[in-house]
Write a structure and sequence with these properties.
heterodimer, A: alpha/beta, Four Helix Bundle (Hemerythrin (Met), subunit A), 434 Repressor (Amino-terminal Domain), eight-stranded mixed β-sheet, 8 strands, flat, B: alpha/beta, 11 helices
């Protein structure tokens, strides 16, 4: 969401008057927490959950000596991030497979949450681990729902158990489990019809199914785009049926996914998987700390800071810091940074950690080979050109392309990339402006 | 009466929402900070969004002060008016041509209920004696065509389809030719659910629209964005990007029979000026109603 895409900036703003005073009062914390509160609400975390979260956070923030920290905004962000991560469960948690197979997994949720697609993804996930998996089509209500699962099963070469549309879903589930047992399946995944948590009759059907098939794992599929209602939905399903885990779908969009926090907070059940795309392989195991960052809209800044600290030498970092502050980051520095980057892991990983970068950098292909090309391109420029790329006109571009053994398009791409980076550096530079920046020695 | 239908659909919504409102109306005599804070909470919990909710309450506070209102029910009346005026006074109907073919394009993210809404719209048009052709433009999701086919059979419409994986623009083209040849009254083009952030898929939907425009000037007469009432703040981005790609003429707000309030349509109407045209309030084929701003606001706030 554009409005509060950068909580860091907002907090910076909230803390703007502070430095002169040099002290953090309770009012300052209140103002900062108000920004956090709005950011969380705009990320669709349920109001009640946010209220409690902010209350807890206030106590912790006041207790902690924010004064000592280098920049108060960073300190608050760090605290918020930690608390959010705590709230979502400290560790990743997956499905325990039954010692006596088959492991029976039941998938439930509202209409349109993405249950059928996710069942197929999950089946594929286990098939890849050499498990024998079967799917059961128990959605007899939505037209062609069974067909959908059959088509998906066929494409994955996974058997789909069905008794058609005129059989009671509980009966289908029972038959499917029997069949899975007979054919020595490791895992059976039962797809159920989407239903409203308020629909007593439909909810009873699930309760009945649970009684009959004794699933090891009941998963609730929650759409990442869900708003405030995620709390009611998760609470209802958990109270009426008892769920074992949550699965967030449609995570490949730009929704912040605050629903994950609401669902986790109200049920206490772990989030286990994320659906992250249209492809059948787009299923990921859940990582709480990444989710916290996503909800705050800040990328994995903290990891990036740590990585950067490990890989930059102090002196260079200091120089870069100056440049950031004065916005004199040149192509020479860009080249330097590229060298340093090599020690930090893949470019793509790093890009993903920077707030707002996921989207911006999408068009900028980053692979190691291209980095070598880029290096050659910069090295083919004159000193003046490196300092002030704006003077690079069409003729110069041609010459640089020739000199580096590339072509003009590549030169253009690099210049564009540099410009983007420069913009980003400016932003990061402003983040630390006024305060000392040893914590962020240089992100590139 | 439409308001009764709305009430039926929103009945469950009202339990939590209006219960709170009622408490506010009767429980407080004074318009103090607590009152406004609770009002803000109610609006936020309806998915109207923190920023818009705060704006609404602030405006209400000012107006109440200006007009020297100190009664809570009067204040809520003002708030209702505010919401109503954002949502538009006129009841916008589907733009169905008097003569000749009307083309309706239906778009939205995955799982909002596009196909089901098309089924319901078709049923409604059939009740009015209209001849309807459906284009099975979701060639991506497994068995999506079968789903639409089953609706077509049920409500009596013809369907134009191709194989899974076919170019949806080609399906739209075929369907348009077929609708013209059959002298149909309405052609409804279904499309695959797509996240608004997927550039290539948004290009695909632009192409579908281009084909319709080119082959039948004036088409599509309606481009409906289907929004799930359970959706949170992301619906604004959805509306923005779908509008940019296809020029959305109206919203179909689905799943209002749940406990979600669908309040996100308020900032959408406010910032993007896209009206809600239809609401989905149940699983049945008759459970689709025209949206009426006054009824919506009334129902949300009435006892």
């Amino acid at each position: 969401m554009a409005i509060f895409s950068n909580l860091t900036e907002k907090l910076q703003h909230a803390f703007a008057g502070l430095r002169k005073k040099g002290k953090l009062s309770e009012d300052d914390i209140k103002a900062a927490l108000k920004e956090v509160q709005i950011a969380l609400l705009e990320a669709d975390v349920n109001y009640k959950v946010v209220k409690k979260f902010i209350k807890d956070l206030r106590e912790k923030a006041i207790g902690k000596d924010i004064l000592e920290s280098l920049t108060p905004a960073q300190q608050v962000i760090k605290l918020v991030n930690e608390e959010l991560t705590n709230l979502m469960g400290k560790e990743k948690s997956s499905i325990m497979l039954a010692s006596n197979p088959p492991t029976i997994i039941m998938m439930c949720g509202l209409q349109g949450a993405g249950k059928s697609t996710t069942c197929a993804k999950l089946a594929n996930f286990y098939k890849k681990q050499n498990k024998k998996v079967m799917l059961a089509a128990c959605d007899v209500y939505r037209p062609a729902a069974i067909k959908q699962l059959q088509v998906l099963g066929e494409s994955l070469d996974i058997p789909v158990f069905t008794l058609g549309e005129n059989v009671d879903p509980v009966g289908i589930a029972k038959g499917a489990v029997e069949k899975a047992r007979k054919s020595a399946m490791d895992i059976i995944i039962i797809d159920t019809a989407g239903r409203l948590h308020l629909d007593e009759q439909m909810m009873n059907e699930l309760v009945e199914m649970k009684k009959v098939v004794h699933p090891h794992e009941i998963l609730l599929a929650v759409d990442a785009m869900t708003g405030q209602d995620a709390l009611n939905v998760a609470e209802s399903f958990d109270n009426q049926l008892g769920i074992d885990g949550i699965l967030m779908t449609k995570m490949d969009g730009d929704a912040r996914g605050g629903a994950a926090i609401s669902a986790k907070a109200v049920t206490g059940k772990p989030i286990k998987f994320l659906g992250t795309g249209e492809k059948i392989t787009d299923l990921e195991v859940f990582h709480p700390e990444r989710m916290a960052s996503r909800i705050l809209g800040m990328g994995d800044v903290l990891t990036l800071i740590e990585k950067a600290q490990e890989n930059f030498d102090e002196k260079k970092a200091k120089e870069l810091e100056e440049k950031l502050r004065n916005s004199t980051f040149t192509l020479d520095d860009f080249l330097d940074q590229m060298d340093s980057m090599k020690g930090m892991g893949s470019m793509e990983d790093l890009m993903g950690m920077i707030p707002g970068m996921n989207k911006q950098m999408k068009n900028l292909q980053v692979d190691e080979k291209q980095m070598a090309h880029n290096k050659a391109i910069i090295q083919s420029m004159t000193k003046d050109e490196r300092k002030d790329p704006q003077i690079i006109n069409a003729n110069r571009r041609k010459r640089i392309a020739m000199g580096s053994g590339t072509n003009v398009q590549r030169v253009n791409v690099l210049l564009k990339q540099f410009k983007e980076t420069q913009k980003m550096m400016k932003r990061i530079g402003q983040m630390g402006k006024g305060g000392k920046m040893p914590k962020i020695p240089g992100l590139f | 009466m439409i308001i009764d239908y709305l009430k039926k659909g929103l009945a469950k919504t009202r339990v939590g929402f209006v219960g709170k409102i009622e408490e506010l109306v009767t429980g407080y005599k004074k318009l103090d900070d607590e009152f406004f804070e609770e009002l803000e909470e109610i609006l936020i919990q309806a998915d109207i969004g923190a920023v818009t909710s705060m704006e609404l309450v602030k405006k209400l506070q000012e107006e109440a002060h200006e007009q020297k209102i100190d009664d809570s029910s009067e204040a809520i009346g003002l708030l209702k008016k505010q919401i109503e005026s954002i949502m538009g006074h006129d009841q916008p109907h589907l733009n169905i041509q008097e003569d000749g073919l009307t083309v309706i394009l239906v778009v939205g993210v995955n799982g909002t209920g596009k196909t089901t809404s098309i089924g319901k719209i078709t049923y409604n048009l059939r009740q009015q004696g209209k001849k309807v052709v459906l284009a099975a433009g979701d060639t991506f999701r497994a068995a999506a065509t079968e789903q639409l086919e089953s609706w077509a059979e049920d409500v009596g419409a013809s369907i134009v389809k191709q194989n899974e994986g076919a170019d949806p623009a080609a399906v739209a083209y075929d369907a348009l030719q077929s609708a013209k040849a059959k002298k149909a009254d309405v052609l409804i083009v279904d499309t695959a659910g797509r996240l608004h952030t997927k550039v290539n898929l948004m290009e695909e939907i632009k192409k579908i629209k281009r084909v319709l425009e080119r082959e039948y000037p004036g088409a599509p007469h309606e481009t409906l964005l289907v929004v799930d009432a359970t959706t949170g703040q992301n619906a604004i981005e959805q509306a923005k990007l779908f509008n940019k790609a296809t020029g959305v003429t109206g919203i179909v707000l689905t799943k209002l029979d749940g406990s979600a309030k669908g309040g996100i349509v308020i900032p959408i109407a406010d910032r993007l000026e896209i009206p809600v045209k239809l609401i989905g309030i149940g699983e049945g084929k008759e459970d689709l109603r025209p949206f009426c701003p006054k009824d919506y606001a009334d129902t949300l706030f009435s006892k």
